[in-house]
């Protein structure tokens, strides 16, 4: 890992990445794509060491304006709970600031390390709003260890989702990607959906049954196929060539199953609705009170 001084921390949409690169090793990782122009090895994590100072400055400035953009997002590009977070505490320090300034948080991870910060997540949720998002792709634990080798497996993530629910924190699951010929099966989707129902998730984001592959990500994925699934690389190449969107033959059947289960259990499954929910800050009155407090 290496340390840098970042120039800014919040994107125009209020997203932040405290790290660049990731050590979880998911074989299908889109963040490896060349288009993101990472100038270092993907596993050589770039640590934005001044992120807490930058965030505090940005939130202090926002307090004087309006409640718009009061939800801060993290985890879209790189997991905020990689191994290095254990000692660096960068995510934790930023959560402390979000909590102190009364902002909301939407955070996406695959790691049970998030439980370390449960106290802050609860506090943010009580003062404003906190949504914990977890990615679930693979019900079979053995297969999960191959596809997502350096992070806790789906069963443990399910337990994390349950703990969030028990603590009143709403959760959203990203059921994506589902890889053709690997985990695009009825059994897998049923297993994941069953976990979601039992964990009482608020919503599930699923764009369809498939995966996207582009330069940088594709090569890594194909190497992993060669290593773990003999013959599959050729099959992918024959069927999909260099396509960006790889859609499973089982897409229609499995999406029908997905919608049926969600409707039956009142789980929100509209992507637009869920993205709106992630951006939406609870009523501005509470926020205004918070702003007065910090004036
Ligand atoms: S957790 Fe996310 S960023 Fe990290 S390797 Fe997996 S897909 Fe990539």
Structural descriptors:
alpha/beta; TIM Barrel; six-stranded parallel β-sheet; three-stranded mixed β-sheet; 43% helix; 13% strand; Radical SAM protein; iron-sulfur cluster binding; catalytic activity
In brief:
This is Radical SAM protein. The protein is an alpha/beta fold and 295 residues long. It has helices at 51-63, 85-88, 90-101, 118-127, 141-147, 154-166, 186-198, 217-228, 232-240, 251-264, 271-279, 284-294, and strands at 2-4, 15-16, 19-20, 46-48, 71-74, 104-109, 130-135, 171-174, 203-205, 210-212, 245-247.
3D architecture notes:
GO terms for molecular function: catalytic activity; iron-sulfur cluster binding; metal ion binding. It comes from Parablautia intestinalis. InterPro entries: MJ0683-like (IPR040086), rSAM (IPR007197), rSAM_sf (IPR058240). Keywords: Iron, Iron-sulfur, Metal-binding. The protein has 295 residues and is α/β, with parallel strands linked by helices. It has one domain: Aldolase class I (TIM Barrel). Helix content is 43%, strand content 13%. It has helices at 51-63, 85-88, 90-101, 118-127, 141-147, 154-166, 186-198, 217-228, 232-240, 251-264, 271-279, 284-294, and strands spanning 2-4, 15-16, 19-20, 46-48, 71-74, 104-109, 130-135, 171-174, 203-205, 210-212, 245-247. The strands form three sheets. The chain has a six-stranded parallel β-sheet, with helices on both faces. It has a three-stranded mixed β-sheet with strand order 1-4-3, with no helix packed on it. Strands 10-11 form a two-stranded antiparallel ribbon. Mean pLDDT is 94; it is low at 291-295. Bound molecules: iron/sulfur cluster. The site of iron/sulfur cluster has 9 residues, from loops.
């Amino acid at each position: 890992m290496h340390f840098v001084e970042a120039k800014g921390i919040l994107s125009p949409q209020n997203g932040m990445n405290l790290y660049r690169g990731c050590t979880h090793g998911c074989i299908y990782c889109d963040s490896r794509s060349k288009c993101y122009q990472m100038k270092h090895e993907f596993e050589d994590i770039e640590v934005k060491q001044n992120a807490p100072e930058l965030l505090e400055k940005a939130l202090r400035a926002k307090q004087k304006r309006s409640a718009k953009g009061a939800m801060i997002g993290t985890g879209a590009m790189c997991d905020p709970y990689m191994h290095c977070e254990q000692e660096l505490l960068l995510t934790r320090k930023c959560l402390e600031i979000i909590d102190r300034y009364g902002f909301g948080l939407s955070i996406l991870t695959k790691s049970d390390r998030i439980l370390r910060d449960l106290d802050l997540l609860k506090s943010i949720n009580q003062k404003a709003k906190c949504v914990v998002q977890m990615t679930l792709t693979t019900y079979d634990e053995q297969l999960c260890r191959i596809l997502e080798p350096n992070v806790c497996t789906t069963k443990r993530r399910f337990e994390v989702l349950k703990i969030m629910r028990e603590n009143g924190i709403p959760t959203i699951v990203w059921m994506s990607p589902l890889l053709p010929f690997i985990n695009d099966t009825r059994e897998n989707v049923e297993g994941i959906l069953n976990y979601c129902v039992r964990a009482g998730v608020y919503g599930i984001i699923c764009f369809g049954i498939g995966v996207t592959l582009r330069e940088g990500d594709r090569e890594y994925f194909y190497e992993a196929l060669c290593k773990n699934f003999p013959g599959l690389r050729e099959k992918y190449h024959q069927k999909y060539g260099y396509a960006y969107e790889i859609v499973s033959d089982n897409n229609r059947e499995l999406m029908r199953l997905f919608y049926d289960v969600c409707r039956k259990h009142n789980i929100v499954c509209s992507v637009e609705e869920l993205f709106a929910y992630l951006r939406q800050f609870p009523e501005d009155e509470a926020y205004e009170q918070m702003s007065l407090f910090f004036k």
